[in-house]
Write a structure and sequence with these properties.
By secondary structure, the chain is an all-alpha fold. Helices cover 78% and strands 0% of the residues. It is built from nine helices and no strands. The radius of gyration is 19 Å and the shape is globular. The two termini are 26 Å apart.
């Protein structure tokens, strides 16, 4: 635990904490019908996500806690987005959108799985896998697609008076994001398996 909190008082860690605290604000605003406000909060979260990584690398403020807080903030934010869009589409009067809402549960399941597996890895002394290029592409695509849906999605969007995305386009973009998410999830397996094997070998060598 001492190693985890060593050098933890940094601006990047504060920004990650702010992102976590913004999640309930986003949820409350969205479910109260203030979608513009929710969109602004989501934009602030995205800006802080961009800044914390830049600041950490530029000022050499990378810490063990930061490596944990940053992905946790990402995953909690993505979980909240998946929840609100599932709820919104599931309440749609359009049958195709109502059935399509269950696709968002796949994102929910992936993030929950990552949180549980990451917690287990930390508990047994393993290092949760850092985001590879597949994970970064999937995360970027997820945010871009979901922000567009929250802005312009049918029966969902905060800015639908300007433009309404056709149903087929919403479904196509979300499915592309889901495919990339699944690829990213699979990409974590080799490093996780390598750590498990190394842990077993260390235990075997200490006997």
């Amino acid at each position: 635990m001492k190693e985890l909190f060593k050098g933890c008082w940094t601006i990047p860690n504060l920004l990650s904490l702010i992102r976590i605290l913004l999640v309930p604000v986003f949820l409350v605003l969205f479910f109260q019908g203030n979608k513009i406000g929710a969109l602004i909060v989501l934009a602030l979260s995205g800006v802080s996500d961009f800044l914390d990584g830049k600041i950490a690398r530029h000022f050499n403020q990378i810490s063990a806690l930061g490596k944990l807080l940053d992905p946790v903030a990402d995953k909690i934010t993505q979980l909240s987005i998946a929840v609100v869009l599932f709820w919104q589409f599931n309440s749609s009067s359009v049958i195709s959108l109502k059935y399509f809402s269950y696709v968002f549960l796949a994102f929910l399941g992936k993030e929950l799985l990552m949180l549980v597996c990451g917690s287990i890895m930390v508990a047994v002394g393993l290092r949760p896998c850092a985001a590879e290029i597949y994970g970064k592409i999937a995360t970027f695509t997820f945010y871009v697609v979901m922000i567009f849906v929250i802005c312009f999605g049918p029966e969902v969007g905060a800015l639908i008076e300007w433009y309404v995305m056709p149903n087929w386009l919403v479904m196509t973009l979300v499915l592309i994001s889901l495919v990339l998410t699944i690829i990213a999830l699979i990409s974590y397996i080799p490093d996780t398996w390598r750590q498990v094997k190394e842990k077993k070998q260390q235990k075997g060598g200490s006997k």
